[in-house]
Amino acid sequence: MHKPKNKNHLLKIDRLLAFSDGVLAIAITLLILEIKIPKHDDIVHAGGLYNYLYNIWPSYLSYLVSFLVIGIYWSNHHWLFTFIHHTNHIFNLIHIFFLMAVCFLPFTSAILGDYILDPDFKNAATTAYCVGFALPIIPLIILFFYAFHKHRLVGLNLNRKFMNRQIVKLFSGLFLTIIALGVSFYHAFAALAIIGLGILIYLLPPDVPIYDEEKIND
């Protein structure tokens, strides 16, 4: 396998991967902390603990969906570094913005769980969640463009069609999320259905990296 260009400016990915796994683990753990343990007054107001636990089912659902979303990001992140074997300062900085965007999801997830059934606020809650879902895709697209440009951080024999296909998939996911964002201002549940479709697409197994026959000497 050919090494990327600009070897003198490349860094090892070990620390980046360790940092990323730690941040993603914290982000996914924060989701459950948004499901609050009820106080006595909350239980009385709900008419009992059974009723309280039943009435907060949207929080369970938003937790489940957001856990799945972050899990998908982690899985695809792991896949990404099967063909990106080095990093550099700029790639690290872009990657920081990706992690920051993922860490925003527990906040929007909590808003969705609390207000999705409120007639006055359900659209705004869904809009916030769509924003939280879309934000990590943007730096992820930039990461791919940066790594792929002139084979900057990937092997020189990584297939061009394979790289283009990954960019198209990311833009397709972003486009679908933008549609959901626009719909969320008027129909909350229709927007969530579109987000659900996006999640199903991301659940599909990623492409296996394709390499051309080696024609370039290291």
What's the short story on this structure?
The protein is mostly helical and 218 residues long. It has ten helices and no strands. The chain is elongated and about 70 Å long.
What does this structure look like?
By secondary structure, the protein is mostly helical. It has one domain (7-203). Helices cover 68% and strands 0% of the residues. The chain has 10 helices and no strands. The chain has helices spanning 14-33, 40-46, 49-55, 57-80, 89-102, 105-115, 122-134, 137-148, 160-184, 188-203. Helix 1 (14-33) packs parallel to helix 6, helix 5 runs antiparallel to helix 8 and helix 7 (122-134) runs parallel beside helix 10. The longest helix is centred in the C-terminal third of the chain and has 25 residues, at 160-184. It is elongated. The chain starts with 13 loop residues before the first helix and ends in a 15-residue tail after the last helix. The model has no long low-confidence stretch (mean pLDDT 88).
